[in-house]
Amino acid sequence: MNLCIKSAIVSVLAMTFSLPSVAQNAQQTRGLEIAKARKVADQGWVDSQASMEMLLSNKQGETSLRQLRMKNLEVESDGDKSISIFDSPKDIRGAAFLTFAHVQGADDQWLYLPALKRVKRISSRNKSGPFMGSEFAYEDLSSFEVEKYTYRYLGDEPVGTEASFILESVPTDKYSGYSKLVTWLDKDDYRVHKAQYFDRKGSLLKTLTASNYMQYLDKYWRAHNLKMVNHQTGKSTLLTWDSYQFMTGLKESDFNKNRLKRAR
Amino acid sequence: MRLLLISLITLFSVAIHAVEVRGYMGTELRYFSETPWQSEQTDWQASFVTQPEFYWELDDSGDNSVTFTPFMRIDSADNARSHWDVRELKWLHLADNWELEVGAAIVFWGVTESQHLVDVINQTDGIEGINGDDKLGQPMVHFSLIEDWGVFESFILAGFREQTYAGKNGRLRLPLLVDGDHSQYESSRGQQHIDVALRYSHSLSDWDIAFSAFHGTNREPVFQLDSSQQQLTPYYMQMTQVSSDVQITQNDWLWKAEWLYRDTQPESYYAAVAGFEYTLIGLFDSDADLGLLGEYNWDQRQEQASTPYQNDLFVGARVVLNDEDSTELLIGVARDLSYMSYSGRLQASKRLGERYKLSLEAWLFHSNEQADPLYYFQHDDMINVNLDYYF
Question: Which residues in chain A are closer than 8 Å to B100, comparing Cβ atoms?
Fold first, then answer.
C-alpha cells in the first residue's frame, strides 16, 4: 500500500515539475515549425538580381546615400552565394563582395579592390559589424537559414492589419551581435513585418520595419522598404530594393573570384 | 602598339553602346621635413593627378567590353614625376568558363601587405609612391580557364615597361641620378622581348593557393655606373621565376605567405614573406575593428639583396571605424634585423561628403649603414596629403 501511494506522489510531483518544460517544449516546437514554414515559403527562386539604395540618417537629420546591386544564387542545403557591386559612394564604386554563406561555420568572403585590381579573401567574423556604415549588420542582410537560430513561439499579435506570429530567435553563432531577435511574421505568408534586435547585454538595440511587399512569380514575397532604427544611437537606415528579377539564368560559374574581378 | 591602337579605335567606332566613365582627380601636397642629400632636391611637392576609366560594352550580352584607363600626374617640383601612362587599354571577352583579355592591363598576384613579392606581371610605377602599389599598364594576351578544379591562366607579355625614377629635384631617390633613356638589356630584343607566364590558382575550404611561373625580362634592373661615372644606367636581365602564394582564412585569423625562386643574373635566389592578420571585431563594444598585422620578409641574398626586404620584420595595426565616412587608420613599422634600420608609416583616410576623399600619409626612415638600401631615404621623412574627387 505504502509503496503504491509513494509512487503515486512521486508521479504527481514529477508531472507538476515537468509541466512547465512541456509547455516550454511546445513553444520551441511551434517556433521551429514557424521558422521552417518561413524557409519553405521562400524556396525555389533559383537566382535573383536586384539593386538597392540605403539612406543613412543620423540624429541631426544628416543623410548619406549608398547604392549597390546584388546577385544571388540559391544553394541546395547550404547558404546562398552572392555578389554585391558598389555603385555609390563614388570612391568605392566598382568594389565588390563575393560571399559563400554557410549554414554551419563562418561564411567565405572575398573583396575586390578596383584600385589595385586585387581580390582579397577576408575574415568573415565581422557579421555583427555595420554594412557600409549603415544600421544593417552583415548578418541582417544574409539569407535566412533555419539552423542559424533556436526558436520559441511567443504568441500572436497583429502588425497593422496583418495577423502575425511572434517568434523569439536566439542566434546559434557565438559571433552574432545579438542575444536574441523577436520577429513578427504574418500567418498567411510568413513574411517579416517587424523585428526587434537585442544586443549582447540583452537591451533593445534596433527595430526593423518591413513594408511594401511585392510578390514575384506568384510565390516569392520581397519587402521593397526596410527601415532599421537604432534606439541607442538615434541613427536609422532606410533600405529600398528596386528592380527585383528572379530566375535570370545565373549559374555557379557566375559566382567565383574571376567573376568578382569582372563585376560591373 | 600603334597597330593595336588603330584597331581598337576602329572597334570604338563600331561600338553601338554609350561609354561609361568613372575615376578620380585630385591634388597632392608633399612636405619633406629634413635637409636633403643634395641642395637641388625639393622640400615641397604639389601635384595634380587624374585617372579616368572609360568603359564600352560592345554588345547587349555584357560579355564583350573595351576599357581605356589613362593616368596622368603633373608635379610642381620634379619633372620626372610628371608623367602619364595608359594603365589599361584592353578588350575583354567573357565566356562561361573562360576569359580573354587583350591589350594593356593590370594583373595583381599575392596575399601579403608589407611586400608584394610575387606580383611580377606589371612594372611598378615607383615614382608614384613608396608602397609599390601603383603599377604601369602592361600589354598582354591573358587567357583564363575557370574550372571546378581551379583557374588556369596564361600570359603573353609584349612591350616591356621600364621602371620610373625621381629626377634631380625629386626626393626618395639615390644620390646618383638614373638615366632611364639609355637602359640596357641582356636580351638582344630589348624591350621587344616577349615574356610568358603561367598561373594556377584555387580556393578550397579555408585555403586560397596559387602557383605561378614567369620567364622573361626581370622587372627589377641592376644599376651600372655610366661612362661619365655620374649617372646610373639600368640593366635589365632575363629571369625565370617560380612562385607560390597562399592564404589560410580561419574566422578572425588570416595566415599568408608568398615565396619565389628566381633564376637570374648576377645570382639566383629564394625569397619569401609570411605573416598573419588578426582582426578584433567591435573594439570596446563599438563598431570599430582593429586589425593586427605581422609579416617577416626574407631574401637568400641577404646583404647582396637588391631590395630592402632581406631580413625584415613588419608590424602594423589597422583601425577601421565602420562609420558613414569609412574612416581608416594604419600604423606600421618595418625593422631591418640585419642593419637595425627601420621605417615607420601612418596612413589615414576618410570620405568628405559624398564624393571627396581626404588621405594623409606620413613616413619616417632611420638608417645608419651605407650598405642598407634604406640608407638613401633617411633624409626623406615625408608627410603627404591627398584630396581626391571621385566621379
Answer: none
Write the CB contacts of B190 (distance below 8 Å, at least 6 apart in sequence). Answer: B160
What is the H or E stretch that residue B23 is in? strand B19-32
Q: Amino acid letter at A190? A: Y
Q: Please answer whether residues B134 and B92 qualify as being in contact, where contact means their C-beta atoms are separated by less than 8 angstroms.
A: no
Does the CB of A179 have a partner CB in chain B at under 8 Å?
Answer: no
Q: Which CATH number fits domain A41-261: 3.10.580.10, 3.40.47.40, 3.30.10.20, 2.50.20.10?
A: 2.50.20.10
Show the DSSP H helices in A89-168 as ranges: 138-141
The Cα A67–Cα A93 span in angstroms is: 9
Q: Dump pLDDT digits (tens) for A150-182.
A: 999 999 999 999 899 999 999 999 889 999 999
Domain range summary for chain A, segments of one domain joined by +: 41-261
- What residues contact B133, with CB distance under 8 A and at least 6 apart? A116, B116
- The shares of helix, strand and coil residues in chain B, as percent rounded to the nearest 5, are 10, 55, 35
Whole-angstrom Cα distance, residue B113 to residue B129? Answer: 15
Facing A91 at nearest CB: one of B111, B208, B351 = B351
Question: Which three cell numbers mark B311?
Answer: 631580413
pTM of the model: 0.91
Q: Which helix (H) or strand (E) holds A213?
A: strand A204-216
Chains A, B: CB contacts within 8 A come to 98
How many angstroms separate the CA atoms of A78 and A131, rounded? 22
Measured at the CA of B316, the angle between CA B312 and CA B322, to 5 degrees, comes to 155
The residues near A223 (Cβ < 8 Å, ≥ 6 apart) are: A191, A192, A210, A211, A212, A213, A241
Q: Tell which residue, A131, A154, A156, has the closest CA to residue B322.
A: A131
Cβ neighbours of B326 in A, within 8 Å: 89, 91-92, 133
Distance from the Cα of A150 to chain B's closest Cα (Å) equals 22
pLDDT in tens, A92-133: 999 999 999 998 888 999 999 999 999 999 988 888 899 999
Could you give the angle at the alpha carbon of B234 between the alpha carbons of B232 and B237, nearest 5°? 150
C-alpha cell at B290: 582593429
Residues forming beta bridges with residue A165, ordered by sequence position = A156, A185
Which three-class secondary structure state does DSSP give residue B329?
Answer: strand
CB contact at 8 A, B299 and B311: yes
C-beta separation of B258 from B275 below 8 A:
no
How large is the ipTM?
Answer: 0.92
Residue A216's Cα: distance from chain center in Å? 19
On the 0-12 / 13-18 / 19+ scale of CB atoms within 10 A, B159 is middle
